[in-house]
Amino acid sequence: MGLNQAFDISVSGIEAARLKQEIIASNLANIDTTRTSDGGPYRRKTVILGEEPLNFNSILEQETKKLYGKKPGGVKVVDLVDDLTPFMRVYNPGHPDADADGYVDLPNVSMSEEMIDMVFTSKMYQANITAFNATKKMAQDTLQLP
């Protein structure tokens, strides 16, 4: 594995963290949305991440066939899914979206859960930046060899 591939792996983690932060921001922005274009309250979204496998066989195959494009290794976004946990029902008969019994369905977004995800994603981002910078330092040190 060369330094370019190490850069690519770090960048894939950075891009995955960026997407997760965007989804968290969307969830937080819609924490009070009781009516969407689909009808009903906003449903929390989650990002499913997976690995881009890095193993000897994939690297050997790539090198022998001189494949170009995405190299193995890193993180990939597998799916963006709706959280199917039930909506919270609150009694508020004056709300425009209340049903006949006076209950309103609120989004299944929890502020504390989103904040925990945000801190975790921020740490994931920082770890990938650290790995990227370490790879950059190795590349710079290699250029300064006597």
Task: Describe the structure concisely for a colleague.
The protein has helices at residues 3-29, 56-65, 111-143; strands spanning 45-51, 75-82, 88-91, 103-106.
Overview of the structural elements:
This protein has a two-stranded antiparallel ribbon with strand order 1-2. 48% of the residues lie in helices and 16% in strands. The protein has 146 residues and is of the alpha+beta class. Helix 1 (3-29) packs antiparallel against helix 3. The mean pLDDT is 88. The protein starts with a helix and ends with a helix.
Shape: elongated
The SSE string, one letter per element, is: HEHEEEH
Walk across the major sheet and give the strand order: 1-2
Domain count: 1
Query: What's the overall average pLDDT, rounded?
Result: 88
Distance between the termini: 24 Å
Sketch the major β-sheet. 2 strands, antiparallel
The number of distinct β-strands equals 4
The low-confidence parts are: none
Helix/strand structural class: alpha+beta
Short key terms for the protein model shown above:
single chain; 146 residues; alpha+beta; two-stranded antiparallel ribbon; 3 helices; 48% helix
Q: Layout of SSEs?
A:
Elements (H helix, E strand, L loop, with lengths): L2 H27 L15 E7 L4 H10 L9 E8 L5 E4 L11 E4 L4 H33 L3
Antiparallel strand pairs: 1-2, 3-4
